């Protein structure tokens, strides 16, 4: 029971370490994929087209088109119109503010209305996260009808700074996972086969040629069947071995397989191994048996 509990704790520690490493990797990948703005370019372009559409409706134009949005630079876009129109600055400001509020990364931006022919700025304003810092001139003045383009430039958002606590903890998270995984691997029990054909696992030295077990300087004799059975287990420590395989390899040559014989020899081996607290033969329900080695 103690051995099974220790094995379970080792397994849980291994899974916990793997989980920590996967979490750290997933967060890093998520940041590298999403980039700093966290809002898709296509989604932002839809909002900008909506701004252009509303401006045309406010000018009484319900037939001309808003042409495809141009992505000028990483954080700069341009709204292009098919025909000339007129606009009021306060309506442009309010419409843009209302629609861009749906984008969580557009607290700060600059809007310039350009003459489509020479790209001169005919009107512009700036919106800040702190509304006291907004710069919105010429409210209430109807702008003359013209062929305009609207440039919208967003202030790059530094999500790495916003999430500095999360990202700062990633190295520690990865380090903990690595240490746990490494210590688990270093402590992973193995059987060691000596050059003279002996196996060592836990505090046991198994000599199949002499049919002997040595546990803490105590020598225990094995029968031929016990030796063949333990040799299979010692070759595959901590691995489930199917019951049918054990029966076939041990008794097939004798021409008869008795189901209860395997259970009897497993029981005998357990009694002979019980002097070693780190070694036991456990039942894997519905499958077979496993030599469980903890050190």
From TrEMBL:
InterPro entries: OmpR/PhoB-type_DNA-bd, Sig_transdc_resp-reg_C-effctor, WH-like_DNA-bd_sf. GO terms for biological process: phosphorelay signal transduction system; regulation of DNA-templated transcription. The chain crosses the membrane at residues 12-33. The keyword rRNA-binding does not apply. Gene3D superfamilies: Winged helix-like DNA-binding domain superfamily/Winged helix DNA-binding domain. Residues 196-293 bind DNA. This is Response regulator transcription factor.
């Amino acid at each position: 029971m103690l051995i099974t509990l220790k094995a379970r704790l080792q397994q849980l520690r291994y899974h916990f370490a793997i989980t920590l490493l996967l979490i750290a990797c997933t967060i890093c990948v998520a940041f590298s994929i999403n980039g700093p703005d966290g809002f898709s370019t296509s989604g932002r372009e839809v909002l900008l087209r909506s701004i252009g559409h509303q401006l045309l409706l406010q000018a009484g134009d319900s037939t001309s088109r808003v042409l495809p949005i141009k992505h000028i630079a990483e954080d700069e876009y341009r709204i292009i119109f098919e025909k000339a129109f007129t606009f009021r600055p306060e309506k442009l400001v309010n419409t843009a503010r209302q629609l861009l509020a749906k984008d969580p990364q557009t607290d700060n931006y600059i809007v310039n209305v350009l003459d489509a022919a020479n790209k001169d700025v005919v009107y512009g304003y700036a919106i800040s996260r702190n509304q006291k810092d907004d710069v919105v001139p010429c409210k209430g003045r109807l702008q003359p009808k013209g062929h305009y383009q609207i440039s919208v430039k967003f202030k790059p958002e530094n999500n790495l700074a916003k999430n500095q606590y999360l990202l700062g903890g990633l190295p520690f998270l990865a380090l903990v996972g690595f240490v746990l995984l490494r210590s688990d691997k270093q402590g992973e029990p193995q059987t060691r086969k000596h050059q003279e054909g002996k196996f060592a696992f836990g505090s046991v030295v198994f000599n199949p040629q002499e049919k002997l077990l040595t546990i803490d300087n105590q020598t225990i004799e094995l029968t031929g069947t016990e030796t063949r059975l333990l040799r299979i287990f010692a070759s595959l420590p901590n691995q489930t071995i199917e019951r049918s395989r054990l029966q076939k390899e041990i008794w097939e040559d004798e021409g008869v397989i008795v189901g209860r014989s395997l259970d009897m020899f497993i029981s005998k081996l357990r009694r002979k191994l019980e002097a070693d607290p780190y070694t036991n033969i456990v039942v894997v329900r519905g499958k077979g048996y496993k030599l469980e080695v903890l050190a």
